[in-house]
Structure formats: C-alpha cells, structure tokens
C-alpha cells in the first residue's frame, strides 16, 4: 500500500459504517439536501431535474468530491448510500488490484470485529460482504475503481438475493 494509493484508516472505516447505519431511520424518505445535512456531507454534483442520476458528495474523508454517492428516486428521496473507503483508482493494474484486495481484507477484518460474521459472502473478482439487518444491509463492496461501504434497503436488494 505504499504505492501512493489512498484509503481511510481502520477507525475511519468503522466511523463510516456507524454513519451509514445511523441513516437507517430516514433511508427512502429523506430528500437529498436533508440527507446531506444529516450526514454532514457536501453535495458536489447533482442535477435536480434528473434525480435518477443520483448525486455525488464530499464526505470529508480526504478522498475528494466524489467520495460518496447517493442513489435517488424520482422524487429525489434517498434510496441507497455509498461511501468510498479508497480513492478512485483510474484504470486497472496489478498494483491497483493488490491495493484493493488489501484494503478489502483490512476493512473486512475491522467490520467483522464489530458487527460479527457477515450474513453473506460473495467471492469473486469483485467480492462483497453483507451484514443484513432487519430493514437494511450494510455491504462492503469491491467496485471497478474503489472499495466502498454501502447501505441499502433490503427491499431494493430483493433482486440481488441468492436462493
């Protein structure tokens, strides 16, 4: 991880998880400006006339103006929240892939230490770990260009469930 790639530390990962889980009560009901204010984040890119595109936010983690993303419905209500724990990595390289694997493993260990064993593990090229709760799921996900934590309502994940 000394190749200049940036990630947040273990305590910041746990703080990020707590921040996302604190959004459970208003997920799917709050509108973007209220959600940004409750999270303490700054909206950096959003087209109010096209809410389906979602919004990028600066989560003040040191990872830049697109460190978070909020998916919105047609009325601009928050559907899902994604918070990067690494900077966006442009392109793919063995070094970037190794960095993402190391970051995923470190985050998985930290989250498992606090939230217990994940309810679901999805191995593969883009692994995911899910901690399912009553109405939401906290997910650690590998994306093409980053590692992120996501909070999703279970009813939106119904199509992603495995038999």
Write a compact overview of the structure shown:
Pfam families: DUF6301. This protein has 163 residues and is an alpha+beta fold.
Task: Tell me about this structure.
- It comes from Actinoplanes oblitus.
- InterPro entries: DUF6301.
- This is DUF6301 family protein.
- The chain is of the alpha+beta class and 163 residues long.
- It has helices spanning 10-22, 32-39, 94-115, 154-157; strands at 42-46, 55-58, 68-72, 78-84, 120-122, 128-132, 136-142, 147-153.
- The protein has one domain (10-157).
- It contains 4 helices and 8 strands; from the N terminus they run H-H-E-E-E-E-H-E-E-E-E-H.
- The chain has an 8-stranded antiparallel beta sheet with strand order 1-2-3-4-8-7-6-5.
- A hairpin with a 3-residue loop joins strand 6 (128-132) and strand 7.
- The longest helix has 22 residues, at 94-115.
- The model has no long low-confidence stretch (mean pLDDT 92).
Radius of gyration: 15 Å
Q: Helix and strand succession?
A: HHEEEEHEEEEH
Strand order of the largest sheet: 1-2-3-4-8-7-6-5
Biggest sheet architecture: 8 strands, antiparallel
InterPro entries: DUF6301
Pfam family, one: DUF6301
Protein name: DUF6301 family protein
List the helices and strands and how they pair.
Blueprint: H1 10-22, H2 32-39, E1 42-46, E2 55-58, E3 68-72, E4 78-84, H3 94-115, E5 120-122, E6 128-132, E7 136-142, E8 147-153, H4 154-157
Antiparallel strand pairs: 1-2, 2-3, 3-4, 4-8, 5-6, 6-7, 7-8
Helix pairs in contact: 1-3
